[in-house]
Amino acid sequence: MWLEQTPKLMEGLEKIPVKSEEDKAALSKEKLATSLEASAAAMAKLLQESAVKGKVKSYKRSPATFYSYLVAHEWYHIGEICMTLTQAGYRLPDAVLYGMWEWEKL
Question: Of 67, 72, 77, 102, whose CB neighbour count within 10 A is largest?
């Protein structure tokens, strides 16, 4: 959503369709990793440009607040994934659950 506000940052990015079984079958770890890396680079550029301008397009608060929002939102999804896996009977090992907080090892 935030990158779509700045078409220049969307160049080279593509949304990953997952509505049909054919779409899902076409996914690979490599495709996801490449897409996440490209998205991360675009978001980094958005944050850098916003810090210089002092404003994030279509966001009412400061770039620092926007960054905090992004971090919180990301961790919401991580929690959601962990909960869904647990409820489906695939509890993540403690090493993974605790390891995701050891950022210096990433």
Answer: 67
d(CA 99, CA 102): 5
The 10s digit of each residue's pLDDT in 52-93 is 999 998 899 999 999 999 999 999 999 999 999 999 999 999
Query: What pTM value is reported for the model?
Result: 0.73
**Cβ–Cβ < 8 Å for 43, 70:** yes
Q: Quick one: 53 exposed, middle or buried, by C-beta within 10 A (0-12, 13-18, 19+)?
A: exposed
Mind spelling out the 3-state secondary structure of 42-93? HHHHHHHHHHHHCCCCCCCCCHHHHHHHHHHHHHHHHHHHHHHHHHCCCCCC
